[in-house]
């Protein structure tokens, strides 16, 4: 494998050299969406982050099994143990079957991911399709003595587990702090302690989604699905478990406890978490009125949006920040991403205008070295983008004849740019794709105006030439004159 990847392991709180458990093969499990509403901006970041990891490992020669789950049962409204199932509530309000709701929003999520050029995972299991495995996993925890049955529900005994292992190892919390910050809620009378969490819940009479089990007709606790499904598809030990930082506690903490209780050890070797997206410095939330769905982003229909933003602009916006840093959304930030993406695509397009020379005054190996070093350094996509932008300037210099490149080096440069911009960062040239499909009306119009301007310049009609250039500038399009014609980019 031609990578020396280091990953920041949340469990150990340090960067570690990545070494797969099985040479040449990698198993990744990532917590996917709860499908009871439209995919939103918060879904974009983990999807793009772990798509970047998936792409880079595959490009580095690994065989990767990437599992991303769909939560379609057990994610309750108030917390992990209490309240109405979010999908069942949506179904009741809309007078639908819960699986109709789950299917509808799963398909909307998949379409949004396709628009963002997020690769489909190797396996996408549904919680509702793995009830048998979850029941068996609960039984293993009971057999190990770390759970108890109470009135038809099964709860994890956090205190007993903490005495034998340590609860809070991922988030850095200790049981005393958890006890001090845990509220006593109505309906928790079946628990021995308020901080114990449900492995299986007995369904109330009105609860729609239920399955038979040795303890009651009920449904699995939210945390249980990931322990059971990751084990089923990746084995009792696998390489990487990922998700958003908001899942670190309690969800991933409970996963570690469940797996350790049942198996005698945690399943995942590396725990990887992406940071959050904020909006103008505030956490995104429906109650704050700053909750933006991906469809609203793509159409520009939300009141906070100054315009529509293409899926690739959103992807580029996400990749411009390191996955472990907070990413603050604003119209200004997305507009800057739009311009940056356009500049990058123009530079890549200009590669086709470079004419090979006898000798090279530039070395494309430098770009490969910088990009690989950046990706190996905990998936540092901003540094990859920086290296590509530096080479856009070099490409423009090659087009202008200020520097030269031999044919063999030119092909190597094209391959390197394609590898990192498209194969690894997962970007797409939306204008080129739109032109090919007949949906891009801007490019042909601009090219037509530039052709007219070239004719005016050839006829030395400078007034007409300046009028076309100034008109395009007023529309936010900057014209760059070259020896053999003109290029353009968005301002």
List keywords for this structure.
491 residues; alpha/beta; Rossmann fold; Four Helix Bundle (Hemerythrin (Met), subunit A); 4-stranded antiparallel β-sheet; 17 helices; 14% strand
What does this structure look like?
45% of the residues lie in helices and 14% in strands. With 491 residues, it is α/β, with parallel strands linked by helices. It folds into 3 domains: 21-274, HUPs (Rossmann fold); 279-432, Four Helix Bundle (Hemerythrin (Met), subunit A); 441-490. Strand 1 (6-9) and strand 2 form a beta hairpin. Helix 4 (131-144) crosses helix 7, helix 10 (311-319) packs across helix 11 (331-350) and helix 11 (331-350) packs across helix 13. The radius of gyration is 26 Å and the shape is elongated.
The helix tally amounts to 17
Q: For the record, what CATH class of the largest domain applies?
A: Alpha Beta
Question: How far apart are the termini?
Answer: 41 Å
- CATH homologous group name of the largest domain: HUPs
Low-confidence stretches: none
> What percent of residues are in strands?
5-15%
Rounded to an integer in angstroms, the radius of gyration calculated over CA atoms is: 26 Å
Shape: elongated
Percent in helix = 40-55%
Order the strands across the largest sheet as they lie in space.
4-3-9-10
Query: How many discrete structural domains?
Result: 3
The average pLDDT value, as a whole number, equals 90
In the CATH hierarchy, the architecture of the largest domain is: 3-Layer(aba) Sandwich
Total number of beta strands? 15
In terms of structural class, how would the helical and strand content be classed?
alpha/beta
Q: Write the CATH fold name of the largest domain.
A: Rossmann fold
Biggest β-sheet description: 4 strands, parallel
């Amino acid at each position: 494998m031609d990578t020396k990847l280091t990953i920041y392991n949340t469990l150990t709180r340090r960067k570690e050299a990545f070494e797969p458990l099985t040479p040449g093969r990698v198993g990744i499990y990532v917590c996917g969406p709860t499908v009871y509403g439209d995919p939103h901006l918060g879904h974009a970041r983990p999807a793009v982050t772990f798509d970047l990891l998936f792409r880079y490992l595959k490009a580095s020669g690994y065989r990767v099994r990437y599992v991303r789950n769909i939560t379609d049962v057990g994610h309750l409204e108030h917390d992990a143990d209490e309240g109405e199932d979010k999908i069942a509530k949506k179904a009741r309000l809309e007078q639908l079957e819960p699986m109709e709701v789950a299917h509808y929003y799963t398909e909307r999520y998949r379409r949004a991911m396709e628009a963002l050029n997020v690769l489909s995972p190797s396996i996408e299991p549904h919680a509702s399709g793995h009830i048998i495995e979850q029941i068996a996993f609960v039984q293993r925890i009971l057999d190990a003595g770390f759970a108890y049955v109470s009135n038809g529900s099964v709860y994890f005994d956090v205190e007993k587990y903490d005495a034998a292992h340590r609860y809070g190892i991922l988030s850095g919390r200790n049981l005393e702090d958890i006890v001090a910050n845990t509220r006593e809620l109505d309906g928790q009378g079946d628990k021995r302690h308020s901080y114990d969490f449900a492995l299986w819940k007995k369904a109330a009479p009105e609860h729609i989604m239920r399955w038979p089990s040795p303890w009651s007709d009920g449904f699995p606790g939210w945390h249980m699905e990931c322990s059971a499904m990751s084990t089923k598809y990746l084995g009792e030990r696998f390489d990487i478990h990922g998700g958003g930082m908001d899942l670190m506690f309690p969800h991933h903490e409970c996963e570690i406890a469940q797996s350790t209780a049942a198996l005698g050890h945690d399943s995942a070797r590396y725990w990887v978490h992406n940071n959050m997206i904020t909006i103008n410095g505030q956490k995104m939330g429906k109650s704050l009125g700053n909750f933006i769905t991906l469809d609203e982003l793509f159409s520009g229909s939300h009141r906070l949006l100054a315009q529509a933003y293409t899926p690739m602009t959103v992807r580029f916006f996400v990749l411009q920040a390191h996955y472990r840093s907070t990413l603050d959304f604003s119209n200004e930030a997305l507009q800057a991403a739009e311009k940056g993406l356009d500049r990058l695509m123009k530079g890549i397009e200009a590669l086709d205008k470079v004419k090979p020379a006898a000798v090279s005054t530039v070395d494309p190996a430098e770009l490969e070295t910088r990009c690989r070093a950046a990706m190996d350094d905990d998936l540092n996509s901003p540094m990859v983008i920086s290296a590509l932008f530096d080479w856009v300037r070099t490409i423009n210099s090659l087009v202008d004849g200020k520097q030269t490149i031999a044919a063999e080096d030119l092909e190597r440069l094209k391959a390197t740019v394609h590898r990192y911009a498209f194969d690894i960062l997962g970007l797409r040239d939306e204008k080129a794709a739109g032109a090919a499909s007949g949906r891009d009306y801007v490019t042909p119009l601009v090219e037509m105006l530039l052709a007219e301007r070239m004719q005016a310049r050839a006829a030395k009609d400078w007034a007409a030439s300046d009028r076309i250039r100034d008109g395009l500038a007023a529309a936010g399009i900057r014209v760059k004159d070259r020896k053999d014609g003109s290029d353009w980019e968005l301002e």
